[in-house]
Write a structure and sequence with these properties.
Blueprint: H1 2-25, E1 44-50, E2 56-60, H2 66-72, E3 96-99, E4 111-112, E5 115-116, E6 127-128, H3 134-138, H4 145-158, H5 175-181, E7 185-186
Parallel strand pairs: 1-3, 6-7
Antiparallel strand pairs: 1-2, 4-5
Length: 191
C-alpha cells in the first residue's frame, strides 16, 4: 500500500512540475490591452451657408448661438436678409444655418377672366414652411395644391421641418423642387 502511495505522489509531483515548466517556458499569448482616455467632444458642429462670407462646417462651443455661427463664417454679407433668422437661438449639433439673400418676393400672377393680380412685395420675403397656410405654400414655384396639402399633413403628423432637405421626406417633392423654392423659404421655429 505504501508503494501505491509513493507512485501516486510521484505522478502528482511529476505532473505539477511539468505544468509549472510549461507555464514558465511558453510564450505569452495575445497582446496587452492598453486603455486610452475617453474621447471628449470638441463642441457643436454646424453648417453655415448662404449669404455669408465663408460658407462651411464649423465647430463651436456648446453654449453658442446662431450669431456665433455667423461670426465663425466671416459674418453676413451686405445683401443678407437676417430677418428670417433668430440670432439669439441656441445651436444644436448638426444644425444647418442658411442665411438667405434680401430681396422682395413677388406673389404669383393669376389670370382669370378679367382679374389680374400683379406682383407686389411682401413684408417678409420668405415663407416659413413650418407655419405657412396652404395658399402660401401654393405660391411657391413648383408647389401646387397637392404638394401643399402633403407638406401640411407631414408637418402635422411628424412635426416641424428643420432644413430644406427635410422637405424631401414629403412624397412627391424632388431635389429639383428644392432648387426652385430654396430662395423663397425659411424654417424658423417660433416657440
Amino acid at each position: 500500500m505504501k508503494a501505491v502511495w509513493n507512485i501516486l505522489i510521484g505522478v502528482l509531483l511529476g505532473l505539477l512540475s511539468a505544468g509549472l515548466l510549461l507555464l514558465v517556458v511558453s510564450p505569452p499569448r495575445g497582446q496587452a490591452v492598453t486603455l486610452s482616455a475617453q474621447p471628449t467632444a470638441a463642441g457643436l458642429v454646424v453648417y453655415v451657408s448662404g449669404a455669408v462670407h465663408a460658407s462651411g462646417v464649423y465647430t463651436l462651443h456648446y453654449s453658442s448661438r446662431v450669431q456665433d455661427a455667423l461670426q465663425a463664417a466671416g459674418g453676413a454679407r451686405p445683401d443678407a436678409y437676417l430677418g428670417s433668422l433668430n440670432l439669439a437661438a441656441p445651436l444644436r449639433d448638426g444644425q444647418h444655418i442658411f442665411v438667405p439673400l434680401a430681396y422682395d418676393t413677388p406673389t404669383p400672377t393669376l389670370e382669370r377672366a378679367a382679374v389680374t393680380l400683379t406682383p407686389t412685395p411682401t413684408a417678409s420675403p420668405f415663407i416659413n414652411v413650418n407655419y405657412a397656410t396652404q395658399a402660401e405654400l401654393e405660391s411657391l414655384p413648383g408647389i401646387g395644391a397637392v404638394l401643399a396639402k402633403r407638406i401640411i399633413a407631414y408637418r402635422t403628423r411628424y412635426g416641424f421641418f428643420n432644413s430644406l432637405q427635410d422637405l424631401l421626406k414629403v412624397y412627391g417633392i424632388k431635389p429639383q423642387t428644392l432648387q426652385l423654392i430654396e430662395p423663397y423659404v425659411s424654417f424658423e421655429i417660433i416657440p
